[in-house]
Amino acid sequence: MSDVRKQPTLHDVARLAGFSTSTTARALGNYGRIAETTREKVRAAADELGYRANPLARSMITGKTKTIGVVCADLSSPFFAEALRGISDVAKGRGYDILIVNTDEDVASERDAVALLRDRHVDGVIVSPADVRQVGHLAALQTPERALVLLDRSSAALDADSVTVDDVSAMTDAVGRLLDAGHRHIGIVTELRIEREADWQSLLGDLDHSERRELNPSSRRLLGYLRAHREHDIPIDPALVARTGATSVDSARSATTRLLDQRAQTGMTAVVTVDNTTSVGAYGAIRDHGLRVPDDLSFIAFDNLDWTTLVQPAVSVIEQPVYALGSRAAEVLLDRLDGTRDTPGEEILLDTRFIERESIRAVQQV
Amino acid sequence: MSDVRKQPTLHDVARLAGFSTSTTARALGNYGRIAETTREKVRAAADELGYRANPLARSMITGKTKTIGVVCADLSSPFFAEALRGISDVAKGRGYDILIVNTDEDVASERDAVALLRDRHVDGVIVSPADVRQVGHLAALQTPERALVLLDRSSAALDADSVTVDDVSAMTDAVGRLLDAGHRHIGIVTELRIEREADWQSLLGDLDHSERRELNPSSRRLLGYLRAHREHDIPIDPALVARTGATSVDSARSATTRLLDQRAQTGMTAVVTVDNTTSVGAYGAIRDHGLRVPDDLSFIAFDNLDWTTLVQPAVSVIEQPVYALGSRAAEVLLDRLDGTRDTPGEEILLDTRFIERESIRAVQQV
DNA sequence: CTGTTAGCGCATTCAG
DNA sequence: CTGAATGCGCTAACAG
């Protein structure tokens, strides 16, 4: 018995209430001057008809859609899922809906995504750029009307708010702990898919001037690793840096396996990773190799996921506030849209925390 | 130097090309009859201006938005994140965008979500209903124009397509394996938040007539557990059924702890769980209790997540094709919208798979 | 094959 | 404080 009548329109309400459409619109929209009695009559009529405003029509005029676009590399990753939840909770609380687009960490796909969101007139966009140096399409998105907030990544090429963690310091600290514990040959499993070979060289050559905001997270974390070594006056062995070809557990797993196979030559006694994907892959490879953590190898994971306390001994981790990253990004974005926020683009850093568990063993100095 | 000019409209293109707006629209929209030369000229003009159609205006007329709404209980759960990825990939491939709403597994919130999606004129909705018996708001959503597909849950009260796994059988099979291995006191950690106490009683009392489509997944899985016992002529001990109060790891953890504390009385030698949340919580509780799997307790998890192979010994699991659940739901939905699919609502069952690992130990019969 | 006319549902001038 | 008129950008009849 579904009702075949079309949805009632403002016009219908107006007729029933005995007012013009414009008065009706004012009564319902709480704008302009309106008599209290009128408002009540109109509301009664609207309720009676079950009237609901058509957001499409409204958007045509106002130019606003009460929608924010979220573009992410991989919806199914624990990191993004959690961050998205943060975004969603805040957006919902403030009356905004969310349009999501998945890009597979591909710049071309990201360009399409951005075009799509612009076409659909989203009021703002939260994005975790595939490459922080190819952001022309993101810059083009910014207008006085349309806000842009970067999530998990910041870009020197963009005057936009960003919400990230200080992962360079976080990693410098974590690797420093390993160094303090006597480790001299620490492996790292990272992603350098986008960056060119030259970048890796220049990263090595210029630890001081490397700018956070010109590097993707995994490179920033590698920079932290490198700096920790320099602070401790320990030379870097390039053979200990495993770069994965893709953002996948399998890719991380095989990169780690290579690291493990060369243990006889490198003398590696510890491994660190740069995100949840590399953490899972690396830990799996260590297991497959029949090595025990921390007896045979010390290990630090990035991101405090469930499994790190389920395995035994539990894994020490660098924790980042993933939900808060998302919720904060949404808050900043909506503040811009409200006009509550009018400062230049700001780089917001959330705190990481090192959680010590049982995956690190001190090593005897020779 | 962002361009301050507004986006060019169809009108602008028409003027530049020297045609009327309707001809221009036809040329660009590939509909109606149009001369090839005209089309080319119009296209050239459109390119020159960088014209992009305004989907809002289009939607006002066509009533279509090329958008599908996805309403889920918890975006941050691994299950939903993965399924959402499946939905997203298919939708993107077929030119649809996704509006997501999170409901926290709350029926009232789901009602709002549905209203919101209707207001926004989404072409279709994929939903994992909070309660498969309170679905009036979902029924109201269905029109010849607007399709509805249920994900992970089916409902007897709704004539809609659903994409699920046959979890009753999956669980009957898994528990059957435990029973075959000699276990006689098997604990189960499940969620019965929504169902009333009476339901639990009636489930127990009427194993045959309990209809899959009147139960939420966790209850369906419990039903599988009960049926396995009956098939093996093993009595059921209600003390072995731990019900969590909420969908959270902590809740599952403490429910499991209660089960563990009563081991002396119940003689429990194995535990099964009903989804990834209960799996993580239960496994954590077992660990905390200082029990070894499978030496002290056998264990079967639901969902083949990374951690089940990271822990040692690896955990045997009931695997369900999560990504496919999402992608399939999207396909079915879009087929409906295309008119490719015109049959009555269908219940699509995807296969689960039992993955045998090392978390089950045979038990000596007395 | 192309142009004219109308209007989707609403917000927003401007008069009254 | 209220109403009439206008138009957001586009598609859909209908003529021609």
UniProtKB/TrEMBL annotation, chains A, B:
Keyword field contains Transcription regulation: yes
Gene Ontology MF: a single term: transcription cis-regulatory region binding
Residues covered by the HTH lacI-type domain: 8-62
Origin: domain of life: Bacteria
Pfam families: LacI, Peripla_BP_3
Keyword list, A-Z: DNA-binding, Repressor, Transcription, Transcription regulation
InterPro entries: HTH_LacI, LacI/GalR-like_sensor, Lambda_DNA-bd_dom_sf, Peripla_BP_I
Entries under PANTHER family matching the protein: HTH-TYPE TRANSCRIPTIONAL REPRESSOR PURR-RELATED, LACI-RELATED TRANSCRIPTIONAL REPRESSOR
Descriptive protein name: LacI family transcriptional regulator
